[in-house]
TrEMBL record:
This is DnaD domain protein. Belongs to the DnaB/DnaD family. Residues 282-305 have a biased composition (Basic and acidic residues). Residues 282-314 are annotated as: Disordered. Residues 204-277 form the DnaB/C C-terminal domain.
Amino acid sequence: MVRTDFWLNPVVSEEMTPEDRYFFLYLLTNPHTTQVGIYKITKKQMAFDMGYSIESVEALMNRFIQLHQVIRYNPDTRELAIKNWGKYNLHKGGKPVMDCILSELKNVEDSSLIAYVAECVDKEDILAVYESFCTNDEGELEDFEGVDESCHDTLTSRYTIRGQKEEEKEKENKKQQQHSLNSSVDIDLERESLKKEDVKEVVEFWDQNGFGFSNIHAKQQLLYWLYNSSFLQPKDMILKAMEIACSSNIRRLNYVVGILRNWENDSVLTLEEIDTYDENKKQGTEHRKLVEPDKPSKGSSKEFQLDLTAGEDW
């Protein structure tokens, strides 16, 4: 279910492109969604359902994970988790709802995704169930089976008290999380370094090819496409667009941005796809020329009309 206040979310209304919103609505409403906000789905299935290429889906996934930070995806288990699922969908308890949540959480293979969704679950008894799957043994999870409605209000107190064994597990989990965090930081630093190199290449091409050395504002607008586009190779696509602008002798920002926007709107996300895109446009133009009749040129003679009365005096 999608609430009407979905459109009031500033992330949706201000930061997402129309393509982002379409993809987000798909993630919230596709047939694979579950009550707990974690479900199995492949990128191939997403591409098939939405009519996109797998490369386009991967680009959108990267934007939602790294830029918008509203989902997580485990490529090994092929499980996807939606961060704010609990905030908008888990407001009501009761035995049928709790039984459904318990059943679906047991099927989740990556427990870190459960902890990720649990961060935005506000209802305490449901939150307690999520937390128990993050810390308790399988034997302890079986205690949830057959729980009656009168016990739901006591779930928090029953499963937030930790013994010595659970404390040791928690410490071990923290060590693992710290290790994962350190690895993530290293990856982020590497990506940041690559981004700086990309910025340098784009700015150098701009300055050296007559787009306007002192036009700082235009450079900033162009660099926006490095961080906020669907392209799989944003730097290469920007450089390609500037090369086209140079060959056309139109060295203006709006011309370059227009090229990029046309590619993005037509889901042309890599350099390899540009050649196919241009070839299709060329074939379409030639087809229109063949179908449309030739218009008579100016000054051409009119059609001959026979007048039987011409030259006769009566």
